[in-house]
Design goal:
Chain lengths: 525, 491
């Protein structure tokens, strides 16, 4: 039986029916992760995973199904910027090599409390800084649809693992698009909730005012289960929203709009299309899939109208001032004094700081620390940091104005398909990478929920297999349930989310890491 | 040239809370190193700060006590710099919008001069840990240790305007502030343990000048004596420097009490760029009027109010009233005395209160000073002191004998003044016959003095009184002695 591409609800059925045990399920994924050549996982501990699986199976065997969490016994992979007591947490950085947290992140504890079985930790860009997973100190991660290409980032390992059937679900974090963009590039579903929905306790901080964790899975329905378990007020996080517990899956069954009917489940839903998300920067292969998806949504009864998000372009400079500013301060704690990498070549305190940090941080992290330090410096603060904060408020106002006209905003996630690893490493153009974040940064800056789901495939003009394209839904603050309800209706009408990449070693694409590195590729973005 | 001294003080008041400013770790002093360091204090990856409600309430108490403005919305900011005892690489403080703005604190100098010291602000922040460079016997030579027990301890930094003009004023302010923060219960006031640390900004300028001179900041003065001395020697240094043609450099200096001098610690050029920015982990600190009202309802009567009442009701001088209300224990001592008086015949009178206060500020204060004890540890209770005051008042003993009785009470030999007077036979001799005998003796022995007095030298009479007192072992009533002497000489 191949359960590896099943949704969480299918696995739930299999577990409850006794078709498979939690241990067997966990082992199946562990075996797949052990054999993985994509580089999705950083830390596995089969004994510990099995320990959790046994405990979960006991709950399945002893607790009545009624009232038991739907997540008991389901495996999950955690992004490595989320601390775990049982598995090392490196944040993809050499500076935290072998670091073990004495506590679990709040969201990890909540999912474990629901009986989820941790498979291990997933690869990611160092400290979640990157959009290609090329900035991990522990090696690149590859896109299962074309292993010569990036999986997106920074939650690249999580996205690739789910897409490749190496985990049925994973957690990610999204500061400027790090859940949505890799979900799009790998063809899975992911949601970045409203800022404050999920406790940040235990997230290795990148940019505190933007960081938000979220689920990545095979369907909107799966994400709804996970989000319901992960979200909720946490007094340990002062920025966590103090709102009543919510069932984020309620609009999977209840009507999304008052006018909804069985044939027109999205009737009365007003979808706003910002002109700025469909400009000349959008690649044709992505545009094609997105427009086809819009037709599907119209077919389901949704009404599409144009909205204006005039400051979309400014989200890039605003984000790349605010996020590095916060990062420069957040990462000061990695100083070689108490834990983490300490330089062996330090004669005095200054050298200890300089060398430990220079040896421990990768180039992209160093770049952002430098930028952040600069924009906070005396004499530059007003011109950069304060100005960026003003722009941030204006961007939030633009969304408010748009949501006066429409219920949700819809558009692409990324302007391009997953790009080739080799070309990206060769060209090394950070600015080009930053510009590719254009459709995801605004929602982060405004603290709004954003969902990414597969909506088709595009043909890379540099050749190679067709690659997944993601559709982004952005909602008003706290409107996650509607985003998931709409995505679910779309997924009921389409099967993009059920497509599987060719399995390595099977009839599909076969590759080895040597071949992948040597394979020729041309810039696609 | 005449120089004017300009002083502003910044005081770090450690708040008396059970747990730290942003973590649940204990703030108790003296535990083994690093046993009171929560993952938040260690700045482990993934931790977040949660503000301590008790610390916020303490800030509100202070704001109310100094009539400052309590910000309905203040902002925690990060002050970024690297140091091994600063685990996060930044200190959470308040920068642009502090929790308390303005306010004032009344001071009274010994000569009776009164004034209000204007406050700039008071803000909440967390303390750093401690670097330990000595006593690390188990480690290689040259090792430094880090103790993070103190890291994250809540502080209220209270900043004055540069309004003080002498070391004496600065000390009076520091003492008044110390009295107030302990009075309202937000600080334990322990100077040795660093619960109350003063930084002094000192500059000098020619008398009459309106512009401020370049200032130097003297860090971490943890006693009133050091504060006074540091200001004096620093001011002298600056004046000498300017008068010999030099200029004062803005810098941070340390006071070395051993060598009685201040020393440069770092100059302005080495000053950090702290890159302050609002802490994104902490939403603005919102304080509602209801919260302020709740705290206000729990405030004790403040020393200023009590001081005014003591002056109005009993005619105490401003300085005396300020001294006896300088701390809760000091005022509690007086209050115990007042209630002892109230239960006695004649009750609380202005004369009695003044006499009691004189004893508290005189004999009692020196006895406490000698033993370096706080007033709450006084070996003479307020009730016993009142007993002593009454015996002077009713003439049972002279003031001179009363001091002897105080000494007996202090030694603990007797529970009350009456017991001491009886046992030691110190009661004044009221029997004129007995005194008359001494007078006759003294007059016979000092004919020369008698002549002098007759010639108009008043001083001679005093000497004769002294002789009689001596013969009576101090127990004769001095007034009776004087009367009898006069009567016999002039008689």
């Amino acid at each position: 039986m191949d359960l590896r591409f099943s949704t969480l609800s299918e696995l739930r059925t299999a577990l409850d029916a006794g078709m498979v045990s939690a241990q067997e399920l966990a082992q199946d994924y562990l075996d797949a992760l052990e054999a993985d050549r994509l580089g999705v996982a950083l830390a596995l501990d089969p004994d510990r995973t099995q320990e959790q699986a046994r405990a979960a199976q006991r709950r399945i065997d002893t607790e009545p199904a009624e009232g038991r969490s739907p997540l008991v016994g389901l495996p999950i992979l955690h992004k490595d910027v989320i601390v775990t007591e049982g598995w090392p947490t490196t944040a993809g950085s050499k500076i935290l090599q072998n670091y073990r947290s004495p506590f679990d992140a709040e969201l990890v504890a909540r999912l474990a409390g629901q009986g989820m079985v941790c498979l291990g930790k997933s690869n990611c860009d160092e400290f979640a800084m990157g959009s290609a997973n090329l900035h991990s100190a522990y090696g690149v991660c590859r896109n299962p649809w074309d292993p010569t290409r990036i999986p997106g980032g920074s939650s690249g390992g999580s996205a690739a693992a789910v897409a490749a059937g190496l985990a049925p679900a994973a957690t990610g974090t999204d500061t400027g698009g790090s859940i949505r963009q890799p979900a799009a590039m790998c063809g899975i579903t992911g949601i970045k909730p409203s800022y404050g929905r999920i406790s940040r306790w235990g997230l290795v901080a990148y940019a505190s005012s933007l960081d938000q964790a979220g689920p990545m899975a095979r369907s909107a329905a799966d994400c709804a289960w996970l989000l319901t378990a992960m979200a909720g007020h946490d007094p340990k996080d002062s920025t966590s929203l103090d709102l009543p517990q919510e069932d984020f899956g309620r609009l999977l069954t209840e009507p999304v709009t008052p006018a909804a009917s069985p044939s027109q489940p999205l009737k009365g839903l007003r979808l706003g299309l910002p002109g700025q998300y469909f400009g000349p920067g959008l690649s044709e292969s992505v545009r094609g899939a997105v427009e086809a998806a819009l037709s599907v949504l119209r077919g389901l009864g949704a009404e599409c109208l144009e909205v204006d998000l005039p400051r979309t372009e400014l989200s890039i400079p605003a984000y790349y001032v605010i996020a590095p500013a916060e990062a420069s301060s957040n990462l000061s704690r990695f100083d070689g004094v108490r834990y983490g990498h300490r330089s062996a070549h330090a004669q005095d305190l200054q050298a200890l700081y300089r060398n430990s940090r220079a040896e421990g941080f990768g180039p992209e992290v160093r770049r952002r620390i430098l930028v952040g330090t600069f924009v906070l410096s005396h004499g530059y603060y007003d011109a950069y940091y304060l100005q960026a904060q003003k722009v941030r408020r204006l961007i939030a106002q633009d969304f408010q104005a748009a949501f006066a006209q429409c219920d949700l905003i819809v558009g692409p996630v990324s302007p391009s398909l997953a790009w080739p690893i080799e070309a990206s490493q060769r060209i090394n153009d950070p600015l080009a990478d930053y510009l590719a974040d254009i459709y995801t940064l605004s929602a982060s800056l405004a603290g709004l929920p954003g969902l990414s789901m597969p909506c088709g495939f595009g043909q890379p003009h540099s050749g190679g297999p067709d690659l997944p394209v993601g559709l982004q839904l952005i909602g008003p603050q706290f409107d996650e349930a509607r985003l998931l309800g709409v995505a679910h209706r779309f997924q009921q009408a389409t099967d993009w989310h059920r497509r599987c990449p060719p399995a390595p070693g099977s009839a599909g694409l076969s590759f080895t890491s040597e071949q992948v590195v040597a394979s020729p590729s041309k810039g696609a973005h | 040239m005449a120089w004017e001294l300009v002083i502003g003080l910044e005081t770090h008041v450690q708040l008396r809370t059970a747990s730290k400013m942003f973590s649940p770790a204990s703030t108790a002093f003296g535990a083994a190193p690093n046993t009171q360091a929560h993952p938040i204090d260690l700045a482990l990856p993934g931790v977040l700060p949660t503000p301590n409600k008790a610390a916020i309430e303490a800030a509100i108490r202070f704001g109310l006590a100094v009539q400052g403005q309590i910000a309905p919305r203040s902002v925690f900011a990060r002050k970024n710099y690297f140091y091994p005892d600063l685990p996060k690489g930044y200190q959470i403080s308040q920068f642009e919008i502090p929790v308390v703005s303005g306010g004032q604190l009344a001071i009274v100098l010994q000569d009776g001069t009164q004034g209000d010291i204007l406050l700039t602000r008071a803000h909440l922040e967390e303390d750093a840990g401690k670097s330990i460079h000595e006593g690390l016997a188990d480690f290689p030579q040259g090792s430094s240790g880090i103790d993070l027990n103190r890291a994250g301890t809540p502080l209220l930094e209270i900043v004055t305007e540069p309004v003080m003009r002498s070391a004496a004023e600065a000390v009076a302010y520091a003492k008044a502030l110390h009295g107030l923060v302990t009075w309202i219960g937000i600080c334990d006031g322990n100077l040795q343990e660093g619960s109350f640390r003063v930084d002094a900004n000192v500059s000098v300028r020619p008398v009459g000048s309106q512009t401020l001179g370049t200032r130097c900041e003297i860090k971490n003065l943890n006693s009133f004596r050091f504060l006074e001395r540091a200001i004096q020697v620093e001011a002298a240094r600056q004046v000498e420097l300017i008068e010999s043609g030099g200029t004062v450099r803005q810098e941070t200096r340390l006071f070395d009490p051993e060598r009685d001098e201040t020393r440069s610690m770092r100059s302005k050029e080495d000053a950090h760029d702290y890159r302050y920015f609002p802490d994104p982990d902490l939403p603005p600190l919102v304080i509602t009027q209801e919260q302020i009202d709740r705290v206000a309802a729990s405030m004790p009567a403040l020393p200023g109010e009590i001081r005014a009442r003591l002056m109005a009701d009993y005619g105490l001088s401003a300085y005396d009233a300020a001294t006896v209300t300088s701390s809760q224990p000091s005022y509690q001592y007086l209050a115990a005395g007042l209630s002892a008086l109230a239960s006695l015949q004649g009750g609380v009178t202005s004369d009695r209160v003044k006499a009691l206060v004189n004893w508290i500020m005189g004999e009692l204060a020196s006895a406490l000073n000698r033993e370096d004890s706080p007033i709450e540890a006084s070996r003479v209770s307020a009730a016993a002191l009142v007993g002593l005051v009454l015996r002077v008042e009713d003439g049972t003993i002279s003031h001179k004998i009363a001091r002897e009785v105080f000494g007996l009470l202090w030694e603990g030999s007797f529970p009350t003044a009456d017991a001491a007077i009886e046992a030691k036979g110190l009661r004044q001799i009221q029997d004129t016959g007995a005194i008359q005998a001494f007078v006759t003796e003294v007059l016979a022995a000092n004919p020369k003095m008698v002549d002098e007095y007759r010639a108009g030298k008043e001083k001679a009479l005093n000497a004769l009184v002294g002789q009689v007192m001596k013969r009576s072992a101090g127990k004769a009533n001095p007034q009776s002695v004087t009367d009898l002497l006069k009567a016999q000489i002039l008689g």
